[in-house]
Amino acid sequence: MAVTSAGILLYRLAEEGPEVLIAHMGGPFWASKDAGAWSIPKGEYDPESESALDAAHREFEEELGVPAPRDETPYAELGTFAYSSGKRVTVFVADGGGFEASDLVFGTFEVEWPPRSGRMQSFPEVDRAEWVALSRAQELLVKGQRPAVDALATHLAAAGG
To answer: What InterPro entries is this protein classified in (predicted)?
Structure first.
């Protein structure tokens, strides 16, 4: 069975064009990488026990330490995107124009590091989050999430933004 994840892609309309909020993955593997090392705030869920949108909100808060905007912020399902591994990510989009990417407290995970050392170390799930232009997001996001940026551009064009 394929792994299912859900996430929230906030956007805002800046003078130079639309921007999205994405997060740089934490931990030692991603520390010195930039291109292809960013992600939409998202995480796994069980579709039998939780809706994709509820999971997306839960994971946003777990990863960034703050809730995604909810009051009077409508969410649209942007689509479900498949990775080459078979993992499927359902992405929701919302206008995050008033959301500040500051004072974030990132969730953590434990991993054996260095490998085969027997020592467990704690690392942040993400180590920073930033607003970036859509074209820059295409460079930074992991390959499997890049189609979500294309879908957002289509969504915004259809909405007149």
So the answer is: NUDIX_hydrolase-like_dom_sf, NUDIX_hydrolase_dom, Nudix_hydrolase_domain
- Quick: pLDDT tens for 83-116: 888 899 999 999 999 898 888 999 889 999 999 9
Segments forming the whole domain that contains residue 92: 4-158
Q: Total structural domains in the chain? A: 1
Q: Tell me the CATH number at 82.
A: 3.90.79.10
pLDDT (tens digit per residue) in 67-87:
999 877 899 999 999 988 889
Model pTM above 0.90: yes
